[in-house]
Structures are given as structure tokens and as C-alpha cells.
Amino acid sequence: TQHNYTTHLILMWTILFCLLATSAFAADEALYRIFPQRTSKEAAVVEWGHSAIISALDGAVASFGPQTSQGANFEVETSPVLANPIDGVGKGSRNNNSGDESLSDFEREYPGKLINSDDVAGNMLVMTDAAGLSGVTMARIAKESGAAALMVVNTDQNAGDFIYSLEAETEEEKAYADKYIDIPVIMVSLQAGNVITTALATEDMDPKEVNKGKGLPERVRLYAGGDRPFFEDAVSRNPVVYLIHNMLTEDECDELVQMANGKYERIDDSNGINNYLENTMASQKKGQTTAVNVDKTYLWKGGVAGKTIKDIDERISQVTGFPPEHFSDFEISKYTEGSSYGPRFDMNPANGIMASITIFLNDVPVENGGEFLYPKPEDGAEPVIIRPRKGLAVVHHNTDDQYNFDQATLHQDLPLVGDSSIKYVAKKYVYLNPQSQAKRVVLPLISMPLGGKLPRAFSTLQNMLIDKYGYETADVYFDKLLTMIPILVLLLIASAISSMVQSGMRGWASGKDVAEKGKAKKSKAKSKKSD
Fold first, then answer.
1. How confident is the model over 460-517, as pLDDT tens digits?
2. Nearest Cα to 358, choosing from 339, 344, 378, 337?
């Protein structure tokens, strides 16, 4: 019928439109490196040491075998042993089937058990991927050599700290892994491999001994990462950008959002006025705004912060290695439908910023956009897009090893689209110099009655000092003025207490005089009666 024909036509056009939209989106995605690529399910940790000093490495769990279906639910404590040969193959195959054309590639590729399989039995095998073997083949070598676990070192010199989940490359490999590979298999970066193989190495140790595994820890513990923080490398140089999964818990994200409620102000960076104190710099083109419909607040907590902020700062310091004395307080930004923040640098001439830590406080669906973008990395690859995921931190270094500013750190927040869409972002800056006690204690105390929101008069005062004396001298004067505030407050309190005491004394003396006069009157009255 005509009705059915029309319905089918509409359906066909709808499918065609969806296919075209999907193709266009895929084409757009091909222009970027999109992160995050890892999940908590595939995260693993290798640690060694004692209670005083513990070293740890991040690993990515393979996506084949029972470990995947178990959600990487494993724990192994054993000794690490280097494979011999280190890449599992060496100079020749130990498998007589390598030339048999009747066998599959998987069977021909398998080189056989390791030479040192007796040492490997019951321990964690450390092997490189330099021979180009598939993940399942390396796992097979480890399993048939008696290993309790396998650590594969990514030997790609250009990969930096990048690691990924090894996958079965064919249906045959997948079937084999599901049936036989029941040991944990993880990948670590080349840098991590160097760290663990030299953990016990000394300066006078022969490099040949290190290559034989003499520098490995005596015991290691391999376990699923779960909700622990773990790293994902995005750009290894120019700029250095990496992700830290699970940096904040869901409850901590929610609490930061709650702390910021009712304190937001719309960013207006078109007026040419810098707020050096809270790291809000004016747009480079006066009259043109970089931040579109973005609300922000700065939570001054510092040295008087509560348990939540203190726990977060301690964790960030432990994970990143940055000292907490160099941390700023949290800047919380709120994006709604249509909000965006154009290309910008994290620069503050009054307080040099070494690194920036951006943490997403809620999930944003892919279709709503709002991604974090590094448009011009100088590592020769595509721009980097990071999709907001609750609790995920993005760290970039604003300076190089010589503390020179890195122009490749240009970044922006893409537009947020969709009805009722919202994005919350917390940002913490790592300064080149430790922050003064005046800024870490006095300003938070002043802000305490307002829930951490600092009166604008203080940023105005600092700007006036900078205009008059320059950045360094102004900072000294500003800190001195802040230091005087507690002294003035104490003097005022002392003066008030003194006034109260004096008033009380005068009241007491006045009362005493009245009482004595009353007694005198009574005595006089008695004398008259006796007369």
C-alpha cells in the first residue's frame, strides 16, 4: 500500500542518514587521538619493598583468557624472573614445527618453552615484546614454562609510558587462551621495565649481571588495580600529558561540587583585567572573550582545609610526586549547554605554574561534547581529545626540564551541547615555588565565613601592588600585609577584651560604691532612731 511504501521510504532515509552521520563522526574521530583508552577493569599494579619504602608500577591486563571475565580479579605474590631468551625467541626457534606449512601461523610462531623454565616455574616471568610475538603466544610461552604470571615490557622506544591490553589476534588464539591461559598477563612500559629490572642494582654492579636479572626485586606483588589510581600516557613530550584514572572517588567529586554551589561567578576575561591571585588571566584580545558562559569559583581552603581536601591533596602528592606546598587550592568551573572555553595557556607571571591538574567531577555523554583538547602537540601526531569521565585527572607540564614555558600546552574545552547538559571541572595548579603561609593560612581563614570564597578586595589589592612595584616586590609586600592581618585581629581582640575587663571593673567599682553608700544610709537611719 501507499502507506507502507511511505513508511519504508522514511525508514530507508533514516538509516541512510544515520550511516552518513556515523561515517562523518568516524572521519572526525580519525583526526584526533582520543582518550581515555583504558578502564579500571584492565588496571593492574606491581609493587615491591617494605612498609617504609614501597615502589609500584602500573600495568594493563590482557583482554584474553579467564582474567578478563573475572574483571582482573587476581593477586599473585612471587619472585620476578627474566626470560631466557628475553624476548622468548632469541637467535633461533626451539620448536621443530616452525617450518611446517600445514600448521597455522599460531602454531608455527610458537618457539617452545624457555631455556630457564626451571627458574621460571611458580614465579612472575618478565619478557619483552621485541620479537614481535602475539600476546597469546607470549602467554603460552610463560604458561608452558610454568610461570605464575607474565609481565610483558613494551619495547617501543617512541611509546613513552604508553601501554595497552594485549588481545587475541585470531579466533584460534582466542579459543586457545580461553582454554589454557589461566595466569595473569599484563603489559608495562619500557620505562617501568627499566625500573623493576634495576630495582636492586648498585653503581658497582656489572651490567651483565643486571641483564641476567640480578637487579630485580626479591619478591613482588601483582594485583588488580580496582579503584586505585593508575596512569595512562597521552603525549610523552611537547607537551607532557598523562591521565590519572580514579584520582578522586565519586563521593569526593560530589563533595567538591557541593562546596562550590552558590559561589560561582561568570568568567569575564574580555575586560583586560587579570586576577593573578586566582589564576584567571584576561583574554589576549581585549574585548573578545575566551570563556563563553563558563562559571567559576576558587575555594580557598589551604592549611585550614577539612578532611576531604586534605585527603585529596595527599593522594595527588603521592601519585604525582609534586609537593603539596606547591599546590594551589581548587578552582571549580561549571559548564552548561553552549559553554566553551577557547584556546589558552596556564600562565601566571606573578606565580609561575609548573604543571596543571584538571579533574572531571562528572561524566559527560559522548554526544554532549565538552571534551578537553590539546590542538597543537609537537610530537608529530594528531591533536589529543580527552573525554570527561568522573574522577579522571589530566596532568600537563607547562614547562620543560629547564623550566622554559612549553607553547605546546595550548588547550581548550570544546562546546557542551544538548539540553540540560552540564560539566563540572576541578583544577589545581602546581607552582614553581612553594606557597607562603600567608596565602596558605591567612587567606583561607579570611574566606572561611564565606565558605572559601575570598572577597574581591584582596585580588584588587594585589593587582594594585603589582602595577606599582612589579611582580616580585609586590608579592613580598602582599604577604607582609596578609601577615599583619592576624596581628591586627589579635590586637583588636585584646583591645576588646581589655575594654570588657575595664568596663567590668568600673561596673564592679560602681556597684561597690553604691553598696557602701547604701550601708552608710542605713547606719545613719539607725542612729536617728536610737536618738
1. 999 999 999 999 999 999 999 998 887 776 666 766 676 777 776 766 666 666 566 6
2. 344
Map residue 231 onto helix, strand or coil: strand
Residue 367 pLDDT grade (very low, low, confident, very high; cuts 50, 70, 90): very high
Question: 444: which 3 cell numbers?
Answer: 583561607
Q: Cell for 104?
A: 597455522
For residue 450, list its beta bridge partners: none
E strand residue ranges, 236-352: 241-245, 265-266, 291-299, 330-344
Rounded distance between C-alpha atoms, residue 388 and residue 394, angstroms: 10
Contact at 8 Å (CB) between 363 and 390? yes
pLDDT of residue 315: 95
Mean pLDDT of the chain: 87
Supply angle C-alpha 143, 149, 153, rounded to 5: 100
Q: Which residues pair with 335 in a beta bridge?
A: 294, 423
151 has which bridge partners?
126, 186
Residue 516's Cβ-side half-sphere holds a number of Cα atoms within 13 Å equal to 6
For the segment 397-403, the average pLDDT, to the nearest whole number, is 89
Taking CA atoms, 402 is separated from 76, 406, 432, in Å, by 41, 10, 12
How many Å separate Cα 326 from the centre of its chain?
16
